[in-house]
Amino acid sequence: MSAVLQTQTTSLTKIDLAPRIASEIKADKQTLLSGALAPAIRELLEQRGVVVIRQIGFTDDEQIAFTKTLGPIVQVNKAGISKITIDPVENPKGSYIRGAFYWHIDGTMLPEPIGLATLTAHRLSATGGDTQFCNTYAAYEDLSAEDKLQLANFKVVHSIESTQRYFNPEPTYAEVQEWQAYPDRILPLVWTHRSGRKSLVLGNTATYVVGMGHRDSSALLTRLRDWATQPQFVYTHKWTVGDMVIWDNSGTMHRATLYALDSGRMMHRTQTAGEESIV
Description:
The chain is α+β, with helices and mostly antiparallel strands. The protein has one domain (1-279): Clavaminate synthase-like (Double-stranded beta-helix, 4-Layer Sandwich). The chain has helices at residues 29-34, 38-48, 60-70, 94-97, 136-141, 145-151, 160-165, 173-179, 214-228, and strands at residues 2-6, 11-16, 23-25, 50-53, 82-84, 116-123, 131-135, 155-158, 185-188, 190-192, 198-200, 206-209, 234-237, 244-248, 252-256, 266-271. The model has no long low-confidence stretch (mean pLDDT 93). The strands form 4 sheets. An 8-stranded mixed β-sheet has the order 1-2-3-4-14-6-16-5, with helices on one face. It has a 3-stranded antiparallel β-sheet with strand order 13-7-15. Strands 9-8-12 form a 3-stranded antiparallel β-sheet. It is 26% helix and 26% strand. The protein starts with a strand and ends in an 8-residue tail after the last strand.
């Protein structure tokens, strides 16, 4: 359904793409790069988690400039763009990208997780390679009162090792040492944001619930992941080259659907710095 989002500075027309998540907007490059729509886009991201702009066709420089209208950019390298591909020639750490096939939040191992992110499609796989997002605000809001009370004070250990074991369940000792070079983090299961809203902190870095036995911990984290990724909370983006998707990383999880590892799929990503700590 098409609707107009009105802010103090400007308005934009949005088309909701799924019941509880994701809206499409239409705008030209000049308007997007001017920053005039930035407040409205940020407000829409707060409400809907994901914003889609189809076939905008940003160059790297344009994508970086646009991202800077939304917040301080994470300067990952001189170019300012992360190449999201499994191809080791294009990305020396491409093997780590395989963790993106599983639900996750970017930057759970950082003091402040990534704020917003943009992804632009440059090359696609012939099969698979969609990107799915789920709204972790809405998933929390729809929990029962009993669940909310039970989960309020739970803490979860997050680790890099957990993400890697999804696709490498029998690592070498050297690989385990490499993964464990990154310290674990203990995070609340329920993130109380400075806005007062709450969201679930799940994903492939979540290893176990502090003080809970392995079986019960595994069952709880799996049940909550299944809950948060129900159809009403999920949007699946089927890419066309030139599409750009923006998401609020603090209120969503995402994953890529499986595609051939030799497909050459290439996405360019920018991110803004985190704005608040989970802890």
